[in-house]
Request: fold
Amino acid sequence: MRQYALAAAILALSNSALANTIEDTVVNGLNKPAIYYTDIEPHLKKVAKHPSVKLEQIGTSFQGQALNSLKIGTGPIKVMMWSQMHGDENTATAALMDFLSFITADENAQWLKSWRQKISLLIIPMVNPDGAAVQTRYNAQGIDLNRDAKALRTKEGQILMAAANQFKPDFGFNLHDQNAYYGAGKKGKQATISVLAPAYNEAREVNKSRGEAMQFIAHLAKTVETIIPGHLGKYNDSYSYRSFGDTFSEKGIRTILIESGAYPNDPNRQIARKVNRVLYKKTIDSLTSGEWKDARISQYHAIPFNAKDNWVDLLIDDIIVNSELGDYQIDIAINNKGPINNKGPSPVIKELGDISSIRQGYTSLDASSLSFKAGNSFVLNKSLTLTERSYKNILKQGYSCFSGDMNKLKNTSKWPVYACKSIFTSIPSLHAPAAFFLQADGINKYAILGTELINLES
Ligand SMILES: [Zn+2]
Reply:
């Protein structure tokens, strides 16, 4: 029995080392919030050594960084996939590197052989390397590449359009990231994956190619539902004249938008990354077999619509506010929309009022037996280094913000620091700094710092 368990363990180990399932194929170094061109370059060079991969530099960005395409296969069904035309939308680029690693793995040679004369695959990872370098949506000229499909004023937009005009894809996969607050339907789970078959005119008609894009999405939706049930949403199809997806749809390309979103406790979106790479392989397998044609457009329409701001980072429900003008109950929502690396402004109160009837919190607290309490100002007159422990001690003494010489403060904790300003009020106020306490019987039970709910009694 014991021997059998050991053998099974060794087998499991060797399987994961081979990584011969797409689910398990993860290239190293990309589980992080931002992906730059220098992160993918070594992977591109590595897969380019494979005899079936043709790597080509197809141009340069405004600032001179390389844009590359990788071509695999020589078949009549043409599939084009491109990612990160918005520089801060990193997830699909990582998934494409995983997929390329899978395609070129020795143990998958038979699989590659099974489709490479049926399909031509063109991958253009990271269309916007300049935007990626500073993690912004825009390119280095401040232009949203995805609103440049008609004017083509950017080099990156011209390169993407030229690639499509030359390659003439049957299927186009437009790969993006969406914010963390969409729900898959009203009060649904987080939309970890959202999809769209973009419209090609204002009337949002469905012709043959758009109908087939819808069928293909309906087919892929089954796979998403298997991996992350309830986390799939669909964008509404209002027509966006300047966008690449809509413009490619006009050209008769079966265009499929995949937006990667958040999942609880998954800051680097590794769940969406996994679902993406599984969908890319599924795409190849389904096009090879033709099984996607069994899917129906009605199944596409059955995918719940994305609900905007369905989620907030922190939701404090039904807290009591004691005010000179009368007591009342209120919900408080706080989002952390600051840029990565915590260099942005610390979070503020996003919304007040009845929030919990239409939104959910990644973190939420029933505060119906707690009351709001503004914190006091900790005056800095000597150097202070905040660790989690020392910060918590300061919070326990009722201080929630700092004044005096802020240069004396060094924060090594994971929590944000707030400077005390006049906007700290005795009642919660909109856009005020998210730094306050929740009290019971006059004792501070919790501190709120940004989107962190800190239990002061633990
Ligand atoms: Zn985008």
